[in-house]
Amino acid sequence: MTGEKIFAFLGFEPRPILEPEEVEAAYRKRARCLHPDMGGTTSAFQELNTARDKLIDPAYRLMALLEIIAVPNGGEAQNKQPSPSASLVALSLKAAKPLNHLHTLLDEIVRCRTAVALAMRRSELAQISHEVGMLQEASRHEAEALYRRLTELDHRWCNSTPSNRSSFHRELSSLRCDFVTLKKLQTNLHEAATKIKISSLSTTPQLPRSVR
Questions:
Q1: Does residue 62 fall inside a structural domain?
Q2: 7 burial class (0-12, 13-18, 19+ CB within 10 angstroms)?
Q3: What domain range is 170 assigned to?
């Protein structure tokens, strides 16, 4: 499905910002016609689901815009791959150590054979839990900053004409890269928090009787 069709399928003009609520409303309206049980086809309904999912996700939406404004053989400016922002790179590097340690620590907790060792590992787990919470808060601040940039871009986009929107290519690429990086980081942090919660709620591993 092309970038143009993703927007048109749900009746939207191409733009950087679409609120999830308006996308869902447009989806429900179209679903009443395109659902197989309502006389539509399976393929059309699948395309509708694809359009909805991509328009809700900022990274996919920006990718669709990049396809729309792409110029054949657009040159170095369009071919160059952007890098994540310095703040996102720093946050991802900061998260790497506790996330890597967590994987090892959870295995060690399962294999603990003394109460003392288990208590030490639980203490380390509490510390990592605190670090993950702080990182999640920092990632929320990064998300707020990204949406401010997206809102400002949307304002300029809507005040431009289709013929000069190719000038937005670098900015769209940079924002998309940051949204992809942030989503990956937030997913990893969410999975880590879930694993910590499960481990904290799980029963204490069976210790040998001689060391209880």
A1: no
A2: buried
A3: 80-211
